[in-house]
Amino acid sequence: MVFGNNPHHPGSQTTDSQARIRDYEFTYTVEGQEGRLAWGRNSSIVAATREPFAWAIAADGRTIVGSDTDGSYFLTVQSADLMELCYTHSGLSPSKSIVATCGMITRKR
Hints:
By secondary structure, the chain is an all-beta fold. It has no helices and 8 strands. The chain has an 8-stranded antiparallel β-sheet with strand order 1-8-7-6-5-4-3-2, with no helix packed on it. It is globular, with a radius of gyration of 14 Å.
């Protein structure tokens, strides 16, 4: 769900407009990991932004929190190839858009 617009959710709406519900395919490429820290870049089928992200893996090995240039991640490992990813960013982001989403992501080999 998004209020407003950003590179992944283009449009002319402002944050005062109605929420839009959209499904997009994103790719998260983990470029490195050191211990419980992981980093990489993401892009969507709409915007090839290659936005950097940083994730930290909790001691339980299943919970991951992180950030990118304008939002926050909360991930839960479901299995070796499946995670639930939730992402938010507030109207304080550079685009002034508001985003909240959760979905399952699968590892591509």
